[in-house]
Design goal:
Layout lengths: L27 E3 L5 E3 H10 L16 E2 L2 H9 L1 E3 L10 E3 H10 L4 E3 L8 E3 L3 H7 L4 E3 L7 E3 L8 H86 L1
């Protein structure tokens, strides 16, 4: 939607009005047929139509272009009242600068910054409202460290609040200890399984070494027996040689 034409001071050229909403162009786009529209208006139109609402020529979003520079300059020079005129703002400025003014206007309606408060006040009255707002917060004057709302002043009990906080801390600590305990037990179980597995592997290796040693001893005994047999044969041969 465009800017309400009633806000403008003086005459507004017909060419600076949106062909759809008939208000002064806001964020304008122009079709090849040179008819101009507010961006929101023409996009909404093209959802259900494929032609210009003025002359019915075929158009689509890809054919839309920014407004001619001279038209854009004429548009920016238009003078209009602030939207907060009904609240007392008497500012009149160019369309080019109206957004900047309205973002900072002292008569703008803004929400209270206190959580839970739904009141909207003029920016210039915000500080006064915050001073009396029932949702304003402050630190407990008794030194317990709690932040309390003004509406809760009569219900605030430092001892009860601190006791509740202590119980919460105790519960949290118990939970953390239990979590650490479970984690340590899990790690110990994992290490125990690893050690059992390692012990089994070592035991198998020891048995294999024993088996290899047994075979080696058997081979040594066989070699020693063969050596004795060979020595006896040599001695017998030596005797036979002497007899000859």
């Amino acid at each position: 939607m465009g800017y309400d034409i009633e806000r403008f001071v003086g005459y507004v050229n017909e060419g600076l009005l949106c062909s759809i909403c008939r208000d002064v162009l806001e964020d304008p786009l122009q079709a090849p047929c040179e008819h101009a529209f507010c961006t929101a208006c023409i996009h909404g139109w093209l959802v259900h139509h494929s032609n210009c609402p003025e002359d019915r020529q075929m158009i689509d979003v890809s054919l839309l272009r920014p407004l001619y520079r001279y038209m854009k300059n004429d548009l920016n020079r238009l003078q209009l009242h602030c939207k907060n005129r009904e609240y007392g703002c008497e500012m009149v400025c160019s369309l080019e600068s109206i957004d900047r003014h309205e973002r900072e206007c002292e008569y703008s309606q803004i929400p209270c910054s206190n959580a839970g408060c739904t009141v909207q006040v003029e920016r210039r009255n915000l500080d006064g409202h915050l001073a009396v707002c029932e949702y304003r917060s402050r630190e407990c004057p008794n030194g317990c460290g709690y932040t309390i709302l003004s509406a809760e002043d009569t219900q605030h009990n430092c001892v009860a609040e601190l006791r509740t906080e202590l119980e919460l801390l105790r519960s949290e600590m118990i939970c953390r200890v239990e979590e650490a305990k479970h984690e340590m037990e899990s790690r110990l179980d994992s290490q125990r399984r690893h050690m059992v597995q390692k012990e089994s592997i070592l035991q198998n290796e020891i048995e294999e070494l024993k088996s290899q040693m047994s075979r080696m001893m058997s081979d040594v005994r066989s070699l020693m027996a063969a050596e004795r047999q060979h020595r006896q044969e040599l001695e017998q041969a030596e005797l036979e040689k002497r007899e000859l």
